[in-house]
Amino acid sequence: MTSAALSQIKVIDLSHHIAGPYCTKLMAGFGAEVIKVEPPSTGDALRRVGPFHKDIESVETSIPFQWFNTGKKSVTLNLKSPRGADLLKRLVRDADVLVENFAPRVMPGLGLDYETLSRVNPRLVMTSISGFGQSGPYRDYEADEMQVEALSGMMQVTGDPQRPPLKAGPAVVQYSGGLHAYSGTLMALLQRRVTGRGRHVDVSLMDCGLENIEIVLSNFLQVGRTPKRGPGPMLPWGLYRCRDGYAAVLAMPQRHWRRAGEIFDDPRLFEDRFAHVLDRMKHRHEYDQMLEPCVRARSRKEIFEEGQARRLAFGYLASPAEALESPQHAARGFFAEIDHPVVGRHRQCGAPFRMAATPWRAARAPLLGEHNDAVYGTALGLGAAEIQGLRGEGVI
Predict the structure, then answer these.
(1) Starting from the edge strand earliest in sequence, which strands make up the sheet with 200-204, in order?
(2) Nearest-CA neighbor of 277 among 296, 304, 250, 303?
(3) Ordered structural domains, the chain, with CATH
(4) In the chain, N or C terminus with fewer CB closer than 10 Å?
(5) Distance (Å, rounded) from C-alpha 312 to C-alpha 250?
(6) What is the pLDDT of residues 263-278, one digit of tens each?
(7) What does pTM read for this prediction?
(8) Residue 1 has pLDDT above 50, yes or no
(9) How many CB atoms within 10 Å of residue 86?
(10) How far is Cα 384 from Cα 391, in angstroms, rounded to an integer?
(11) What gap in Å lies between CA 275 and CA 116, rounded to an integer?
(12) Whole-number mean pLDDT of the chain?
Protein backbone atom coordinates (compact mmCIF):
# COMPACT_ATOMS: atom_id res chain seq x y z
CA MET A 1 0.00 0.00 0.00
CA THR A 2 1.16 3.56 -0.67
CA SER A 3 2.99 5.11 2.27
CA ALA A 4 0.65 7.18 4.43
CA ALA A 5 1.08 10.96 4.61
CA LEU A 6 2.00 10.97 8.31
CA SER A 7 3.68 7.57 8.52
CA GLN A 8 6.88 9.09 9.94
CA ILE A 9 5.04 10.89 12.77
CA LYS A 10 4.68 9.55 16.31
CA VAL A 11 1.96 11.06 18.51
CA ILE A 12 1.43 10.79 22.26
CA ASP A 13 -2.29 11.34 22.84
CA LEU A 14 -3.24 12.39 26.38
CA SER A 15 -6.59 13.76 25.29
CA HIS A 16 -10.12 12.70 26.18
CA HIS A 17 -13.74 13.43 25.22
CA ILE A 18 -14.06 14.84 21.66
CA ALA A 19 -11.81 17.71 20.53
CA GLY A 20 -8.44 16.08 21.29
CA PRO A 21 -9.40 12.56 20.17
CA TYR A 22 -10.81 13.97 16.90
CA CYS A 23 -7.49 15.72 16.22
CA THR A 24 -5.51 12.52 16.84
CA LYS A 25 -8.05 10.38 14.95
CA LEU A 26 -7.27 12.43 11.84
CA MET A 27 -3.55 11.96 12.42
CA ALA A 28 -3.93 8.21 12.87
CA GLY A 29 -6.12 7.95 9.78
CA PHE A 30 -3.38 9.50 7.67
CA GLY A 31 -0.77 7.14 9.01
CA ALA A 32 0.70 8.56 12.22
CA GLU A 33 1.49 6.17 15.07
CA VAL A 34 -0.82 7.44 17.80
CA ILE A 35 -0.29 6.13 21.32
CA LYS A 36 -3.35 6.95 23.42
CA VAL A 37 -2.45 7.28 27.10
CA GLU A 38 -5.41 6.44 29.37
CA PRO A 39 -5.93 6.20 33.14
CA PRO A 40 -5.56 2.61 34.43
CA SER A 41 -8.78 0.60 34.85
CA THR A 42 -11.18 3.36 33.75
CA GLY A 43 -9.63 4.73 30.55
CA ASP A 44 -10.83 7.77 28.65
CA ALA A 45 -14.14 9.01 30.12
CA LEU A 46 -15.61 8.74 26.62
CA ARG A 47 -15.52 4.96 27.05
CA ARG A 48 -18.42 5.41 29.49
CA VAL A 49 -20.54 7.52 27.13
CA GLY A 50 -23.32 5.83 25.19
CA PRO A 51 -24.93 4.66 23.10
CA PHE A 52 -23.29 1.28 23.59
CA HIS A 53 -23.08 -1.65 21.20
CA LYS A 54 -26.15 -3.85 21.76
CA ASP A 55 -26.89 -1.68 24.86
CA ILE A 56 -24.15 -3.54 26.76
CA GLU A 57 -22.26 -0.92 28.79
CA SER A 58 -18.52 -1.53 29.13
CA VAL A 59 -15.25 0.27 28.46
CA GLU A 60 -15.04 -1.51 25.08
CA THR A 61 -18.55 -0.96 23.71
CA SER A 62 -19.01 2.83 23.62
CA ILE A 63 -19.92 3.75 20.05
CA PRO A 64 -18.59 7.35 20.37
CA PHE A 65 -15.28 6.03 21.72
CA GLN A 66 -15.04 3.51 18.88
CA TRP A 67 -15.34 6.27 16.29
CA PHE A 68 -13.15 8.98 17.85
CA ASN A 69 -10.26 6.61 18.50
CA THR A 70 -9.87 4.61 15.31
CA GLY A 71 -6.36 3.55 14.36
CA LYS A 72 -4.73 4.27 17.73
CA LYS A 73 -2.77 2.22 20.24
CA SER A 74 -3.81 2.27 23.90
CA VAL A 75 -1.55 2.22 26.95
CA THR A 76 -2.60 2.86 30.53
CA LEU A 77 -0.60 5.23 32.72
CA ASN A 78 -1.17 7.06 36.00
CA LEU A 79 0.26 10.49 35.28
CA LYS A 80 -0.20 11.56 38.91
CA SER A 81 2.45 9.07 40.09
CA PRO A 82 6.16 9.98 39.81
CA ARG A 83 6.83 6.71 37.95
CA GLY A 84 3.99 7.48 35.57
CA ALA A 85 5.28 11.00 34.83
CA ASP A 86 8.76 9.57 34.24
CA LEU A 87 7.42 6.96 31.82
CA LEU A 88 5.60 9.66 29.89
CA LYS A 89 8.83 11.64 29.54
CA ARG A 90 10.49 8.52 28.18
CA LEU A 91 7.69 8.20 25.61
CA VAL A 92 8.12 11.87 24.69
CA ARG A 93 11.84 11.48 23.94
CA ASP A 94 11.27 10.05 20.48
CA ALA A 95 7.79 11.47 19.83
CA ASP A 96 6.96 14.19 17.32
CA VAL A 97 3.67 15.39 18.79
CA LEU A 98 1.88 15.40 22.14
CA VAL A 99 -1.82 16.33 22.25
CA GLU A 100 -3.63 17.14 25.51
CA ASN A 101 -6.89 18.83 26.44
CA PHE A 102 -6.69 19.16 30.21
CA ALA A 103 -7.44 22.41 32.03
CA PRO A 104 -4.42 24.75 31.68
CA ARG A 105 -3.11 24.15 35.20
CA VAL A 106 -3.06 20.34 34.96
CA MET A 107 0.05 19.69 32.87
CA PRO A 108 2.23 22.20 34.80
CA GLY A 109 0.89 20.69 38.04
CA LEU A 110 2.08 17.26 36.90
CA GLY A 111 5.49 18.63 35.95
CA LEU A 112 4.64 17.95 32.29
CA ASP A 113 4.34 21.48 30.93
CA TYR A 114 5.74 22.41 27.52
CA GLU A 115 8.89 23.97 28.94
CA THR A 116 9.73 20.75 30.79
CA LEU A 117 8.87 18.42 27.91
CA SER A 118 10.71 20.55 25.35
CA ARG A 119 13.88 20.08 27.40
CA VAL A 120 13.30 16.32 27.15
CA ASN A 121 12.69 16.62 23.39
CA PRO A 122 13.35 20.03 21.76
CA ARG A 123 11.68 18.84 18.53
CA LEU A 124 8.37 18.11 20.26
CA VAL A 125 5.21 19.81 19.00
CA MET A 126 2.82 20.01 21.95
CA THR A 127 -0.80 20.86 21.16
CA SER A 128 -3.02 22.00 24.03
CA ILE A 129 -6.79 22.34 23.63
CA SER A 130 -8.83 24.05 26.35
CA GLY A 131 -12.01 26.05 26.82
CA PHE A 132 -10.38 29.48 26.78
CA GLY A 133 -6.75 28.81 25.88
CA GLN A 134 -3.57 28.78 27.94
CA SER A 135 -3.62 32.51 28.72
CA GLY A 136 -6.04 35.33 29.44
CA PRO A 137 -8.44 36.15 32.29
CA TYR A 138 -10.80 33.23 31.50
CA ARG A 139 -8.12 30.54 31.12
CA ASP A 140 -9.02 28.76 34.37
CA TYR A 141 -12.79 28.89 33.89
CA GLU A 142 -14.63 25.66 33.22
CA ALA A 143 -16.83 25.42 30.15
CA ASP A 144 -18.68 22.77 28.23
CA GLU A 145 -20.12 23.01 24.73
CA MET A 146 -23.12 25.14 25.69
CA GLN A 147 -21.11 27.71 27.68
CA VAL A 148 -18.65 28.19 24.82
CA GLU A 149 -21.43 28.50 22.24
CA ALA A 150 -23.16 31.11 24.40
CA LEU A 151 -20.05 33.16 25.20
CA SER A 152 -18.76 33.09 21.63
CA GLY A 153 -22.03 34.45 20.25
CA MET A 154 -23.02 31.32 18.32
CA MET A 155 -26.30 30.99 20.22
CA GLN A 156 -27.21 34.59 19.42
CA VAL A 157 -27.88 33.54 15.84
CA THR A 158 -29.25 30.02 16.41
CA GLY A 159 -32.97 29.33 16.83
CA ASP A 160 -36.29 31.02 16.08
CA PRO A 161 -36.50 34.76 16.81
CA GLN A 162 -39.62 34.31 18.97
CA ARG A 163 -37.98 31.66 21.18
CA PRO A 164 -34.86 31.41 23.37
CA PRO A 165 -31.46 30.83 21.75
CA LEU A 166 -30.38 27.28 20.96
CA LYS A 167 -27.15 25.33 21.05
CA ALA A 168 -26.17 24.92 17.42
CA GLY A 169 -25.73 21.16 17.16
CA PRO A 170 -23.99 18.16 18.66
CA ALA A 171 -20.48 19.27 19.76
CA VAL A 172 -19.96 21.75 16.92
CA VAL A 173 -17.28 23.65 18.84
CA GLN A 174 -15.53 20.43 19.96
CA TYR A 175 -15.28 19.22 16.37
CA SER A 176 -14.03 22.65 15.28
CA GLY A 177 -11.43 22.58 18.05
CA GLY A 178 -10.20 19.17 16.97
CA LEU A 179 -9.94 20.24 13.34
CA HIS A 180 -8.08 23.47 14.20
CA ALA A 181 -5.75 21.49 16.48
CA TYR A 182 -5.02 19.08 13.63
CA SER A 183 -4.27 21.91 11.19
CA GLY A 184 -2.18 23.83 13.74
CA THR A 185 -0.17 20.73 14.61
CA LEU A 186 0.64 20.03 10.97
CA MET A 187 1.72 23.64 10.44
CA ALA A 188 4.03 23.38 13.48
CA LEU A 189 5.52 20.18 12.05
CA LEU A 190 6.15 21.92 8.73
CA GLN A 191 7.83 24.80 10.53
CA ARG A 192 9.99 22.31 12.44
CA ARG A 193 11.49 21.23 9.13
CA VAL A 194 12.91 24.74 8.79
CA THR A 195 13.83 25.56 12.41
CA GLY A 196 14.57 22.10 13.78
CA ARG A 197 12.57 22.93 16.91
CA GLY A 198 9.07 22.14 18.09
CA ARG A 199 6.30 24.52 19.12
CA HIS A 200 3.49 24.82 21.64
CA VAL A 201 0.18 25.02 19.75
CA ASP A 202 -2.54 26.67 21.87
CA VAL A 203 -6.15 26.00 20.75
CA SER A 204 -9.00 27.82 22.49
CA LEU A 205 -12.51 26.40 21.99
CA MET A 206 -13.82 29.91 22.59
CA ASP A 207 -11.78 31.11 19.60
CA CYS A 208 -13.17 28.22 17.55
CA GLY A 209 -16.71 29.28 18.45
CA LEU A 210 -15.98 32.80 17.20
CA GLU A 211 -14.49 31.38 14.02
CA ASN A 212 -17.77 29.56 13.36
CA ILE A 213 -19.64 32.86 13.08
CA GLU A 214 -17.00 34.79 11.15
CA ILE A 215 -19.50 36.29 8.68
CA VAL A 216 -21.76 37.50 11.49
CA LEU A 217 -18.76 39.02 13.28
CA SER A 218 -17.48 40.72 10.13
CA ASN A 219 -20.93 42.19 9.57
CA PHE A 220 -20.97 43.61 13.09
CA LEU A 221 -17.39 44.92 12.96
CA GLN A 222 -17.77 46.59 9.57
CA VAL A 223 -21.31 48.03 9.66
CA GLY A 224 -22.32 47.69 13.31
CA ARG A 225 -25.27 45.42 12.55
CA THR A 226 -26.29 43.31 15.56
CA PRO A 227 -27.11 39.74 14.46
CA LYS A 228 -30.58 38.35 15.07
CA ARG A 229 -32.02 34.88 15.03
CA GLY A 230 -34.46 34.10 12.31
CA PRO A 231 -34.63 33.60 8.55
CA GLY A 232 -31.42 34.00 6.64
CA PRO A 233 -30.77 36.88 4.26
CA MET A 234 -31.51 34.81 1.15
CA LEU A 235 -34.90 33.70 -0.20
CA PRO A 236 -35.76 30.96 -0.81
CA TRP A 237 -33.23 29.42 1.54
CA GLY A 238 -34.16 26.55 3.82
CA LEU A 239 -36.11 23.38 4.37
CA TYR A 240 -39.65 23.27 3.03
CA ARG A 241 -42.19 20.55 3.73
CA CYS A 242 -42.87 18.41 0.68
CA ARG A 243 -44.98 15.35 -0.10
CA ASP A 244 -42.78 12.86 1.77
CA GLY A 245 -40.66 14.94 4.13
CA TYR A 246 -38.53 18.04 3.69
CA ALA A 247 -36.60 19.43 0.74
CA ALA A 248 -33.86 22.06 0.81
CA VAL A 249 -34.73 24.78 -1.69
CA LEU A 250 -31.96 27.36 -2.14
CA ALA A 251 -32.01 30.14 -4.70
CA MET A 252 -28.33 29.65 -5.37
CA PRO A 253 -26.55 30.30 -7.56
CA GLN A 254 -28.78 33.34 -8.02
CA ARG A 255 -28.13 33.49 -11.78
CA HIS A 256 -29.77 30.05 -12.19
CA TRP A 257 -32.85 30.66 -10.03
CA ARG A 258 -35.19 31.45 -12.94
CA ARG A 259 -34.58 27.92 -14.24
CA ALA A 260 -36.51 26.67 -11.22
CA GLY A 261 -39.65 27.94 -12.92
CA GLU A 262 -39.70 24.67 -14.85
CA ILE A 263 -39.98 22.78 -11.54
CA PHE A 264 -42.63 24.77 -9.68
CA ASP A 265 -46.16 25.29 -10.89
CA ASP A 266 -46.78 28.91 -9.86
CA PRO A 267 -45.48 31.38 -12.51
CA ARG A 268 -45.89 34.27 -10.04
CA LEU A 269 -42.70 33.09 -8.29
CA PHE A 270 -40.71 34.27 -11.30
CA GLU A 271 -42.41 37.56 -12.09
CA ASP A 272 -40.14 40.55 -12.68
CA ARG A 273 -41.09 42.05 -9.32
CA PHE A 274 -39.31 39.07 -7.65
CA ALA A 275 -36.35 38.98 -10.04
CA HIS A 276 -33.74 39.97 -7.47
CA VAL A 277 -33.21 38.35 -4.08
CA LEU A 278 -33.67 41.73 -2.40
CA ASP A 279 -37.12 41.98 -4.01
CA ARG A 280 -38.06 38.55 -2.67
CA MET A 281 -36.79 39.45 0.79
CA LYS A 282 -39.04 42.54 0.89
CA HIS A 283 -42.04 40.27 0.31
CA ARG A 284 -40.80 37.23 2.24
CA HIS A 285 -44.18 36.18 3.69
CA GLU A 286 -46.00 36.49 0.36
CA TYR A 287 -43.25 34.65 -1.49
CA ASP A 288 -43.12 31.77 0.96
CA GLN A 289 -46.91 31.42 0.80
CA MET A 290 -46.68 30.95 -2.96
CA LEU A 291 -43.69 28.61 -2.84
CA GLU A 292 -44.84 26.26 -0.07
CA PRO A 293 -47.75 24.57 -1.92
CA CYS A 294 -45.53 24.09 -4.99
CA VAL A 295 -42.96 22.23 -2.92
CA ARG A 296 -45.58 20.28 -0.95
CA ALA A 297 -46.94 18.79 -4.17
CA ARG A 298 -43.64 17.08 -5.03
CA SER A 299 -41.42 14.44 -3.47
CA ARG A 300 -38.04 15.12 -1.89
CA LYS A 301 -36.02 13.36 -4.57
CA GLU A 302 -37.96 14.96 -7.40
CA ILE A 303 -37.10 18.42 -6.07
CA PHE A 304 -33.49 17.44 -5.41
CA GLU A 305 -32.85 15.84 -8.79
CA GLU A 306 -34.68 18.45 -10.86
CA GLY A 307 -32.97 21.29 -9.01
CA GLN A 308 -29.53 19.74 -9.41
CA ALA A 309 -30.20 19.15 -13.10
CA ARG A 310 -30.70 22.92 -13.42
CA ARG A 311 -27.49 23.63 -11.47
CA LEU A 312 -29.35 24.77 -8.36
CA ALA A 313 -28.13 23.81 -4.86
CA PHE A 314 -31.19 21.77 -3.89
CA GLY A 315 -31.17 18.86 -1.46
CA TYR A 316 -33.42 16.89 0.83
CA LEU A 317 -33.54 15.82 4.46
CA ALA A 318 -32.39 12.19 4.54
CA SER A 319 -32.68 9.71 7.38
CA PRO A 320 -29.52 7.95 8.64
CA ALA A 321 -30.66 4.78 6.88
CA GLU A 322 -31.05 6.67 3.59
CA ALA A 323 -27.62 8.27 4.02
CA LEU A 324 -26.09 4.81 4.49
CA GLU A 325 -27.65 3.65 1.23
CA SER A 326 -26.80 6.80 -0.74
CA PRO A 327 -25.39 5.92 -4.18
CA GLN A 328 -22.99 8.86 -3.80
CA HIS A 329 -21.50 7.40 -0.61
CA ALA A 330 -21.39 3.94 -2.17
CA ALA A 331 -19.55 5.22 -5.25
CA ARG A 332 -16.91 6.89 -3.10
CA GLY A 333 -16.61 4.01 -0.64
CA PHE A 334 -17.18 6.44 2.21
CA PHE A 335 -18.26 3.88 4.80
CA ALA A 336 -15.51 1.56 6.03
CA GLU A 337 -15.95 -1.95 7.42
CA ILE A 338 -14.24 -2.26 10.80
CA ASP A 339 -13.65 -5.52 12.71
CA HIS A 340 -13.36 -5.15 16.51
CA PRO A 341 -12.70 -8.05 18.94
CA VAL A 342 -15.58 -7.02 21.23
CA VAL A 343 -17.99 -5.06 19.02
CA GLY A 344 -17.48 -7.28 15.99
CA ARG A 345 -17.76 -6.23 12.35
CA HIS A 346 -19.45 -2.87 11.85
CA ARG A 347 -19.53 0.11 9.50
CA GLN A 348 -18.06 3.51 10.29
CA CYS A 349 -17.73 6.82 8.49
CA GLY A 350 -14.51 7.14 6.53
CA ALA A 351 -12.14 10.03 5.88
CA PRO A 352 -13.45 13.62 5.92
CA PHE A 353 -11.26 14.35 2.89
CA ARG A 354 -9.06 12.39 0.50
CA MET A 355 -5.45 12.60 -0.61
CA ALA A 356 -4.91 10.61 -3.78
CA ALA A 357 -1.30 9.57 -3.20
CA THR A 358 -1.64 8.84 0.53
CA PRO A 359 -4.98 7.17 1.28
CA TRP A 360 -6.80 7.08 4.58
CA ARG A 361 -6.28 3.99 6.73
CA ALA A 362 -9.38 2.52 8.34
CA ALA A 363 -8.55 0.65 11.55
CA ARG A 364 -10.41 -0.17 14.74
CA ALA A 365 -10.22 1.56 18.12
CA PRO A 366 -7.96 -0.12 20.71
CA LEU A 367 -8.93 -2.11 23.77
CA LEU A 368 -8.02 -0.42 27.04
CA GLY A 369 -4.29 -0.97 27.66
CA GLU A 370 -4.04 -3.31 24.69
CA HIS A 371 -0.55 -2.13 23.77
CA ASN A 372 1.03 -1.90 27.23
CA ASP A 373 3.43 -4.78 26.64
CA ALA A 374 4.42 -3.65 23.15
CA VAL A 375 5.01 -0.02 24.10
CA TYR A 376 6.55 -0.43 27.54
CA GLY A 377 8.36 -3.65 26.71
CA THR A 378 9.44 -3.46 23.08
CA ALA A 379 9.63 0.34 22.70
CA LEU A 380 10.92 1.35 26.14
CA GLY A 381 12.77 -1.87 26.94
CA LEU A 382 11.09 -2.70 30.24
CA GLY A 383 11.23 -6.34 31.31
CA ALA A 384 8.15 -8.48 31.93
CA ALA A 385 8.73 -8.45 35.72
CA GLU A 386 9.04 -4.65 35.75
CA ILE A 387 5.84 -4.25 33.72
CA GLN A 388 4.03 -6.59 36.08
CA GLY A 389 5.32 -4.60 39.05
CA LEU A 390 4.06 -1.35 37.52
CA ARG A 391 0.63 -2.95 37.09
CA GLY A 392 0.61 -4.02 40.73
CA GLU A 393 1.51 -0.50 41.86
CA GLY A 394 -1.30 1.01 39.77
CA VAL A 395 1.17 2.92 37.57
CA ILE A 396 -0.06 1.23 34.38
Answers:
(1) 73-76, 33-38, 10-13, 97-100, 125-130, 200-204
(2) 250
(3) 10-212+333-392 (3.40.50.10540), 237-317 (3.30.1540)
(4) N
(5) 7
(6) 888 889 898 888 888 8
(7) 0.92
(8) no
(9) 11
(10) 11
(11) 64
(12) 93
